[in-house]
Amino acid sequence: MGDLLTPTFLLILLFSTIRLATPLIFAALGGMFSERAGVINIALEGLMLAGAFTAAVVTYELSNPYLGLLRDGGWGLCCFDLCGRGYQV
Fold first, then answer.
1. For the segment 29-44, what is each residue's pLDDT rounded down to a tens digit?
2. Cβ-proximal residues to 59 (8 Å cutoff; 6+ apart), any chain
3. Full-prediction pTM beyond 0.85?
């Protein structure tokens, strides 16, 4: 167990945690700003998941990652427009 907790491993673990947590941090910041503006949206992670799934399917079907990226943003915007509108305080 002592061989596992080397300074190199801990540094790699720290950087990996920051890298993987970045999308959730951005979603939390967006939720904070929308709360401050008076709009309550608790489905931010779900919108991210729907967009990522759509991007993966479009990229696989069309073999073009750029179209998948465009559809990801479009689908996220469409889901927000359908589900997120009307929850103003």
1. 988 888 888 877 777 8
2. 65, 67, 68
3. no
